[in-house]
Structure formats: structure tokens, C-alpha cells
């Protein structure tokens, strides 16, 4: 959604910092729309994800602080940052996923999805309005900001490989956690081991 909306007729360059999944998806979207992608990833990105990304048309920068490098590149070179927390229209694309779920699975009573920033769940929740399934954010590692909004006693796992490049303290975590609770869901912090 973001690439199609911001990419127009093609020929634009986007940047993204990612643990791999979002970069692989963004790269595919850029290929289809005739745009370019520069993906910033950590040296510890999983071999499988990095192999897929390197096989794509994306330019891949492996660096110790991909979020910071990506923000710098976006600011200095005037490139659009596709990281969900950096793009105000990011949740709109997830509304489309929610609409598909409503159409294809009207009997869905619960949805569990990994989410560090909560942007995906925000968009899905927007598509359902006040009715719909119980929505659950699954979090792990250091990125348990939504879960700690519901249970402040939770302790992050700093050495966990899960969610390493995610959002540790997502903006609006308390509001989203409350919204998930009202849906009958919530947030779960899953230990890595």
C-alpha cells in the first residue's frame, strides 16, 4: 500500500530498516511498481531472510544501527522511509487486510499476530470498527511495549533474537492496549526460550 501510494508512476527510491520480513515485502512491491528500495538490516539478520533480500532487486546495507542509518538516509537524501512508525498512512494498508478478513472469514472470533509497533493491529481494528474478533498482539524479546501497557510487571528479554529490530516503546501503546482489551483481546509477551 505504501509503495503504491507514494511511488506513483515508479522511479522513486524508498528506504526501510527491517529485521528482514518488511524489507522482503517492500522489495517485491518496489519491483512491481518500478521503484527502488534501499534496505538497512543488522548483521544478525537471519541467513534465510538476508538471502531472500539479497536475491531481490533491493540494495542492502548491513549495519549495526539500521534504524538510525535509515532515518539518516531518508533525511539527508530526501527519501521516503517505509518503516511503519515513520509513515502516517501505514495503518491504511492494514485496513485492507482487515477488510479481506471480514469478507473471507466473517466467523473469525480471534486474531493473533506478531506486532511490535501495533500499526498492523491498529489498521485491522480500524477496519472492524466497534465489532469484530478479539485482537491480540504477540510480542517478544525487547519489544513488548504494548504488552507492558497491560502488564507493567513484564520484563523485556534483551538477548532474545525475536523482535530485535522492532519498536521497543511504540507511540500510543497504552491506547492500543486498551483498544485490544475492549475487543476481548490484549497483548501477550512470549518468551524466546
Residue runs with pLDDT of under 50 for 5 or more positions: none
Q: Estimate the mean pLDDT confidence.
A: 87
Number of strands: 7
Strand order of the largest sheet: 3-2-1-4
Helicity range of the residues? 40-55%
Structural class: alpha/beta
Radius of gyration: 17 Å
Number of helices: 8
Overall morphology:
globular
Largest sheet: 4 strands, parallel
Strand coverage percent:
15-25%
Order of helices and strands: HEHEHEHEHEHEHHE
Terminal CA distance reads: 35 Å
Tag the structure with descriptive keywords.
193 residues; alpha/beta; 3-stranded parallel β-sheet; 7 strands; globular
Compact description:
The chain is an alpha/beta fold. It has helices at 2-7, 21-33, 47-55, 66-77, 90-104, 119-128, 145-150, 173-182; strands at residues 13-17, 36-41, 59-62, 80-81, 110-114, 134-139, 186-189.
Commentary on this structure:
The protein is 42% helix and 17% strand. The chain is α/β, with parallel strands linked by helices and 193 residues long. The strands form 2 sheets. It has a 4-stranded parallel beta sheet, with helices on both faces. A 3-stranded parallel beta sheet has the order 5-6-7. Helix 5 (90-104) packs across helix 6 (119-128). The longest helix is centred in the middle third of the chain and has 15 residues, at 90-104. 39% of the residues are buried.
Amino acid at each position: 500500500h505504501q509503495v503504491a501510494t507514494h511511488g506513483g508512476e515508479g522511479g522513486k527510491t524508498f528506504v526501510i530498516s527491517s529485521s528482514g520480513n518488511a524489507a522482503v515485502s517492500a522489495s517485491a512491491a518496489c519491483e512491481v511498481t518500478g521503484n527502488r528500495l534501499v534496505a538497512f538490516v543488522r548483521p544478525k539478520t537471519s541467513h534465510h531472510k538476508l538471502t531472500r533480500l539479497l536475491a531481490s532487486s533491493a540494495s542492502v546495507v548491513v549495519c549495526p544501527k539500521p534504524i538510525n542509518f535509515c532515518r539518516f538516509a531518508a533525511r539527508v537524501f530526501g527519501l521516503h522511509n517505509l518503516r511503519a512508525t515513520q509513515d502516517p498512512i501505514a495503518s491504511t494498508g492494514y485496513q485492507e487486510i482487515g477488510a479481506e478478513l471480514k469478507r473471507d472469514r466473517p466467523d473469525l472470533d480471534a486474531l493473533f499476530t506478531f506486532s511490535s509497533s501495533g500499526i498492523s493491529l491498529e489498521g485491522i481494528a480500524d477496519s472492524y470498527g466497534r465489532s469484530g474478533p478479539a485482537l491480540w498482539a504477540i510480542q517478544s524479546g525487547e519489544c513488548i511495549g504494548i504488552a507492558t501497557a497491560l502488564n507493567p510487571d513484564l520484563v523485556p528479554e534483551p538477548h532474545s533474537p525475536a523482535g530485535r529490530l522492532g519498536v521497543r516503546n511504540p507511540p500510543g501503546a497504552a491506547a492500543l492496549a486498551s483498544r485490544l482489551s475492549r475487543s476481548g483481546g490484549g497483548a501477550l509477551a512470549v518468551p524466546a526460550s
